[in-house]
Amino acid sequence: MNTEVRIEDDGAVRWLRLNRPERLNAVCEELYTALEQALMAADSDPDVRVVVLAGEGRAFCAGADLKRHREGRTEEQRRHYLWQEQRVCRQLFTHSKPIVCAMHGYAIGAGLELALNCDWRIGSESLQVSLPELGIGNFVGGGITALLPNLVGLANARRLMLQPNRKFSAVEAEQLGILDAVVTNDDLIDRAGHRAHELAELEPASLMTARRQLRDAVMHHYDRALAEEWQAMVAATGGADWHKKLEQNA
């Protein structure tokens, strides 16, 4: 049984909590697999109307587990892991149920990419977000090269991607358009749950159609971005610069 994602139902709302708190919920193959399975189960469950994605412990998700990267992967394993990120993010973006993301502590790299593929993002006041990939010799994923310009505008997308060493505060993230709301640390779970229950009360067919129509506006660019990002990540993580910076940062 997978333990990397905790599952809990609250009426028509299903909570999925990333559960690697000892690693600040940094992503790895096992976490992606558990999340993928949990999303599929929520998708097929008629009693689930809305999903909330959150993180256990001190952070939502601190990005890729660099320790696991240092332990080494075969070429095939590396390609599979990188495509796993793309596949899970697409699953979030195209899910049949709306997804609210409750973010606290850190949403870094792959963690922010998971969040950006959700429908609604609420951040605690302590949240910091960042896209550090270009600074460590890697490349962004999760389709965000298509999503970010549509979500926050081209100028703000550049600010996020091309300042890899900068962490943005929750207030800055809201101003940029990444967050839909900033709340106190103590209120995060209640506010995310409240928003999820509001969505659950909407007429399901109309809600699904609205989400599909909005999604279809970027779907062609999104799928192309997933493929091109994956190719860029495969090339980058096979290079000497990545391995050098991995040793410095892991």
Question: Care to give the gist of this entry?
Answer:
This protein has helices spanning 29-44, 66-71, 75-93, 110-116, 144-152, 154-161, 170-176, 188-200, 204-216, 219-236, 240-249, and strands at 5-10, 13-18, 50-55, 99-103, 106-108, 120-124, 128-130, 168-169, 181-183.
Verbal overview:
The chain is an alpha/beta fold and 250 residues long. It has one domain: 2-enoyl-CoA Hydratase, Chain A, domain 1. It is built from eleven helices and nine strands. It has helices at 29-44, 66-71, 75-93, 110-116, 144-152, 154-161, 170-176, 188-200, 204-216, 219-236, 240-249; strands at 5-10, 13-18, 50-55, 99-103, 106-108, 120-124, 128-130, 168-169, 181-183. A six-stranded mixed sheet has the order 1-2-3-4-6-9, sandwiched between helices. A three-stranded mixed sheet has the order 5-7-8. Helix 3 (75-93) runs antiparallel to helix 10. The longest helix is centred in the middle third of the chain and has 19 residues, at 75-93. It comes from Saccharospirillum salsuginis. Belongs to the enoyl-CoA hydratase/isomerase family.
Give me the CATH architecture, please: Alpha-Beta Complex
Mind summarizing the main beta sheet?
6 strands, mixed
Per DSSP E runs of 2 or more residues, the count of β-strands stands at 9
State the CATH class. Alpha Beta
CATH topology: 2-enoyl-CoA Hydratase, Chain A, domain 1
Arrangement of strands in the largest sheet: 1-2-3-4-6-9
Shape: globular
Question: What is the string of SSEs from the N terminus onward?
Answer: EEHEHHEEHEEHHEHEHHHH
InterPro entries: ClpP/crotonase-like_dom_sf (IPR029045), Enoyl-CoA_hydra/iso (IPR001753)
Organism: Saccharospirillum salsuginis
Family: Belongs to the enoyl-CoA hydratase/isomerase family.
Protein name: Enoyl-CoA hydratase
